[in-house]
Structure formats: structure tokens, C-alpha cells
Amino acid sequence: MKKTALLTLVALLALARPLWAQGEGVLFENPHRQYVQSYEGTKTCLACHQKEAQEVFHSVHYQWKAPAPNILNSKGRALGKLNTLNDFCTNPSISWIAELRNDRGETIAQGCSKCHAGLGLKPSEKMTQEQLENIDCLMCHSPNYRRVLWKAPDGSLRRRPALWDNPQALLAMAQSVQRPTTAMCLRCHAGSGGGFNYKRGDLEPTHARATPELDVHMGNGMTCIQCHKFKAHKVLGSGTQLAGQDRPGESNRCENCHKGDLHKDHTLNQHTRSVYCTVCHIPSFAKDYPTDMHRDWSKKEYMAQEGKYEPLIRFQKDVRPVYAWWNGKGTLLLPEETVRKGAKRVKLYAPQGSITDPDSRIYAFKLHTARLPLDTESRRLIPIKVGLVFKKGATDAAIRKGAKAFFGRDIKGYEWIVTERYMGIFHEVAPKEKALKCLDCHMGGDRLHWKALGYKGDPIKYGGRF
Q1: 143 CB contacts (<8 Å, ≥6 apart)?
Q2: Residue spans of the chain under pLDDT 70
Q3: Residue 333 has what DSSP assignment?
Q4: Nearest CA to 78 among 65, 64, 62?
Q5: So what's the pLDDT on residue 240?
Q6: Measured distance CA(311)–CA(370) in Å, rounded
Q7: Predicted structure pTM score
């Protein structure tokens, strides 16, 4: 009640003065104050922004899949969250939307669509007016926006603004739309995987007010969209573990801004031919919030404070990355692919590259591991109906119902297998004074495992690619 009253007060105060927005660092009076006189959902936005809605519909933020030329085994298909497997909540398509409450009546889960740029419907490949009206413009464009679950007249669950029943406050939000800020992006990207910094490890809630010690870019005023630029609502860049790309063939590498020989030392400039910037300039990640490093779905623990069950998760803070060659391409373990009998572990995402590949450089990664169920007959990984675990701790039922929902059939049995996923680390660049020094890697330094990377040993002593 107090939270709702506070949001209402903030919105009404905004109505009492001209509404301002920000673009390229310049404040200007928001034109939506003149054009938007009432807000009736996305259809209000569509009156002027039909073209923009169509752009969003075709984007990875809405479709949750996109062309994947960087995935060597994609076979030309669009890939993404909806049609691949992950080692956090396994697959969002079977845990899309729900209102799960614990025995105390508290909400413990709402489904993966909580972070989808839509209002509850799954995205379809066919663009319809219903799908366009399902796009939630305010989610990315209104600073103080929040939304809740509600039951539609047809009985289905949907999402709508938390202040839906307060037209004046809602109007203030609609009139305050602006370009996405870092805080808006972090609404989803800092909380994915189940909690703050669980999944990525290098995108924390504190990035909304970052210090240079946490991240020299955001701590000095840069925003997400200055690197992840948008064109026709398609975003530049993606992490290594994401399959589809909105803009294949375009990159947002460090070299886009940092060109030429950047170091006074010639030897360091030579390093950039084989070593990517993040290796030296992100000595650790998860600086403020611990990150999920291993998630074991074969075990569960009751979280008394939250009143729910969770898989056993091993968290770690101030994590040292692992290092591997990467040429920008990789392979995914796709849902239809099988795991050989007797395998003890399998890679969900494996970066491609080697010391002999001239297009490869050494990159910094978060190596996430998990234990996931494997169908003993088909040898395919099984997505888990995670809500059954959260609410009841019913792991066996969650696996069997997950298999039924995803495969369309019952399974006879399953076993457990360890999975590995290499996740690129690109945020939390440290101040240059804290970058790695020569002896962190060379002459006895233990940062890089030279033989694992294909060298005979430390290249200062044994030679090799430099």
C-alpha cells in the first residue's frame, strides 16, 4: 500500500510541472505531454508509433530468437531463449507465465515472461495487431514504470501497469517516456537467472549508480545504449552464450572506440593481436553482488526467508575469469542433439578458436556449470518445469512435466549430467591502475594456463604466438 502511494505521489508531482526527457545529454520538454492525453495501453502508443512497434516485433528483445550465423551448428535457423536450453531455468517456453505463491501467500515466481518485452502473450512469428498490442513500450521507455500480473477476461494471465487503476498517475508515466537509461536496462539484465547478478556476473544492480572502481565506463557516465546502439529497435552486440543476433555482421568490440596503438609500451600493443582487452582490464567480476557459478538441479534446499525451494546454487564473489581462445563463433547443445552414453559432462556453449586460428584471440569468460536431467532413452537434455520446484520442491514431477511439455511425450527415466557454459565477460572494466601486470601471467604468474591454451609454456621462455 505504501509503495503504491509513493509511486502515485511521484507521478502526480510530475504532472504538476513540465515533463522533461533526456537525449544525448540534453534536457528538453517531452513532446508526449502534448500528444498523450490518456493512456489505454499499447494501442495508445500505436496511434503514432505503428512502424516502431513493427520494428520491436522483429527484434530479439521481443522474439527471443534471431539469426545465428555465429552458431556453427545452427543450420541457418533463428535461435534464442525460446528454442534453446540454458543451465539456469532451463527453457522459458514451458515456464512462461504463472502466479506462484508460497504457503504464506507471498508471490515467489511469475514465470520467465516477467522480463519479456511483452504483456504476457508468447511472441509469434506472424505479426498481428494482437501481437503488436502485446508489446510493452513503457517497460523500456518509462523511468518509473512497474507492472503486475492480472487475470484477463478470458481467464488467461497477462501483465499490465501497476498503476492501471490510477489513470492520472499512469498518464504521467506515458508522458514521461524517453530513451532507455542504464537503470531501465538493468530492470531485466541485472536480475535474470533468478536474482541480482545471478546469471551474467558482470551486470550488477549497482551499475545503475556505478563508480569508476566498479566499471570505468558506466562509472564515468556512459549508458548501456552508447555501446549497445539501437537501429530500428535492433540492438548491437550480444554475449557469447546468446544464440541469435539482432544485427549479424556488426560488432561493438572495444576497438569501435579504442582505436590504434593504445599503450605506450610496444609489447603491450603487440599483445592485442592475441589477447582481447577484457583479459587484462577485467581482473575479476561480481565485485558487489555474488554470482551463480554452479546450479545443481538434482538437489534442492528450502529458503526459509523467501518461503520457497531452490536448486542448490554455489555463489561466488570477486571471481577470477577463465580464459579461452575465441573467434566470435561457437557451438550450442541444441534441444534435438543427443549426448553420448557414458559422458560425464557436456558443453552447452563452447567457444570456437585456437592458437593456430588467426581470427582468434584469448578472451575472459565466466564458466558456469550445472547438473541437468538427461532422458535415458533419447539422450537429450530435459527442460525443467521450474515452478514445481520453487513451490513444492517436487523435482521429479518438474522434470517429467517439463519433458511432457517440451517433447510432447512421457519419459521412462532420466539421469544427471554436468553441463558447462562459457559466458563472455565484457563489463566491469577496472581502472587502468588495476589492470593485470606482466607478472600476473608471465614468469610464474598463474593467470593463464599456457599449455591448455596451446603453448609449450610461457611464451617469454618458450616462444609462440605473441
Answers
A1: 176, 178, 181, 183, 184
A2: 1-28, 240-242
A3: -
A4: 65
A5: 66
A6: 10
A7: 0.91
Residues 35-94: tens digit of each pLDDT: 899 999 999 999 999 999 999 999 999 999 999 999 999 999 999 999 999 999 999 999
Measured CA to CA, the distance from residue 174 to residue 55 in angstroms comes to 20
R_g of the chain, CA atoms, integer Å: 23
What confidence score (pLDDT) does residue 162 get? 95
CB atoms within 10 A of CB 424: 24
DSSP state of 354: -
Q: Whose CA is closest to 349, among 238, 227, 247, 196? A: 238
Q: Determine the pLDDT at residue 9.
A: 39
The pLDDT of residue 2: 41
Query: What is the model's pLDDT at position 28?
Result: 55
Q: How many CB atoms lie within 10 A of CB 45?
A: 24
Q: What's the one-letter identity of residue 291?
A: T
d(CA 454, CA 442): 15
Q: Report phi then psi at 90, rounded to 5.
A: 75, -50
Tell me which residue has cell 517531452: 30
Which amino acid, residue 276? Y
In angstroms, the Cα distances linking 437 to 267, 276, 282, 447 are: 12, 15, 12, 10
Contact 449, 350 (CB under 8 A): no
Which helix (DSSP H) or strand (DSSP E) does residue 171 occupy?
A: helix 167-175
Q: What is the DSSP string of 56-99?
A: HHTSHHHHS-EE-TTBTT-TT-EESGGGS--SSSS-GGGS----
Whole-number pLDDT of residue 54: 98
Phi, psi for residue 13 in degrees, rounded to 5: -65, -35
- Rounded CA-CA distance 143/210 in Å is 18
Give the 3-state secondary structure of 213-229: CCCCCHHHCCCHHHHCC
330 backbone dihedrals φ, ψ, rounded to 5°: -170, 180
* Backbone torsion region of residue 131, taken as left when φ is above 0, otherwise alpha when ψ lies between -120 and 50, otherwise beta: alpha
Closest CA to 157 of 112, 198, 220: 112
Residue reference for cell 573467434: 327
Cα separation of 382 and 375, whole Å? 6
Q: List the grid coordinates of 351.
A: 567457444
Question: Phi, psi (5° rounding) for residue 183?
Answer: -60, -35
